[in-house]
Structures are given as C-alpha cells and as structure tokens.
Amino acid sequence: MKSSTHILAAGYITMAASLKMNMRLDETFVVLAMSSAGSILPDIDKKGSKISEKNLVAGISGSLLRIFTSHRGFTHTIVGAGLISILITLAINLLPLNLDNNINSIIGMSLFFGMLSHIILDSLNPKGVMLIWPLSRKRFNLMNIKTGSISEFIFRMILCFGLIIFAIYFLMEKGMFNL
C-alpha cells in the first residue's frame, strides 16, 4: 500500500480512539500525529520509502535495519511494532520535554496501533506479512491488492470517503459541528 493509504487508515484509528476514550482535542492531535507516523514507520526497512527519504534519522535507521532484515520483515511483525514503539517512546521520554504520563502512554500506544494498521493493510497485498514472527515465518495475506494498483486506488477512495463521514460524526460528537 502507498503511504497515503496507510495515513488514511491512521485517521480512523485516531477518531475511533478519541471517541472511545473521550479524549481532549490536544490528545486527539497527539494520537493523529503518532498514529500517522506509526502508519508509515514499518516501511523504514524499504530503500526509497517516503519515511526513509524524508527524515534523516529514519534514513540512517533504515539503512542500518536493512543490514539485518528485508522489506516486510521484522518491522512488519507484531513483535517488531511493539519493540519499535517502546524504543521510540523511551527515546521521547529522554528528551527535555515536559509531557505528562498520560501523553507518554498515548504516544506509545498510537505509534503501536499506527504500525499495526500498516501491517494489517500490507496483509491485503499478495506478498503478505510475517505477522507472528519469530514464532513462524509464514506470510499472511488476506487479499490481492497490489501496491499502486487500481484496486488500491479504489480502496483508498473508500477510506477517504469513509474518513470524511467519520470526521463529521467525530466533530458532531465533540460539539464542534452541527448539521
């Protein structure tokens, strides 16, 4: 899937989490930023991916990671998503930011669920993902949507349309929009 498809899916995660957990608007923006980052982070293992090319730290990390794994390897597993989310959250905690514990938890969980959404979407690709590595190297693929294909475009448009509807509902629930 293309990065835009992954980021749209992160929007669903954000709104669902915000509504379910009755988050404040500032917390919702943190979830959106972190789940969006998490939704493209697994592709750090692919040379030429948006995240590897647009961010120096990600580019260097991706180059190092590619020594040990291939695309849709470690970063596309539940274990990989969990470990990477924990490491990034710990690194953010070391920065001289004055964040409360609630926001730190939100950052970690948002990164993880953004990465998990990426993994689930990539399981719709014929190549699939090694979802339960290191327990098994079996690749799981649920559908046959090829990256950049017309079927991905249609899928992305459905996500986009659905997200607009969800956003209107979200804003109405927050009392910020009336029809």
Topology record:
Elements: H1 3-21, H2 25-40, H3 50-54, H4 56-68, H5 78-94, H6 101-122, H7 150-173
Helix pairs in contact: 1-2, 1-6, 1-7, 2-6, 5-6
| Number of separate structural domains | 1
| Major sheet attributes | none
Question: Average pLDDT, to the nearest integer?
Answer: 83
Estimated helix fraction: 55-70%
* Count of DSSP-assigned helices: 7
For the secondary structure, the number of strands is 0
Which term fits the overall shape? globular
* First and last CA, distance: 34 Å
Q: What is the radius of gyration computed over CA atoms, rounded to a whole number of angstroms?
A: 17 Å
Please state roughly what percent of the residues sit in beta strands, choosing from under 5%, 5-15%, 15-25%, 25-35%, 35-45% or over 45%.
Answer: under 5%
Low-confidence stretches: none
Order of helices and strands: HHHHHHH
Structure description:
- Helix content is 65%, strand content 0%.
- With 179 residues, it is mainly α.
- The chain is globular and about 45 Å long.
- The model has no long low-confidence stretch (mean pLDDT 83).
Summarize the structure in short.
This protein is an all-alpha fold and 179 residues long. The protein has helices spanning 3-21, 25-40, 50-54, 56-68, 78-94, 101-122, 150-173.
Keyword list:
mainly alpha
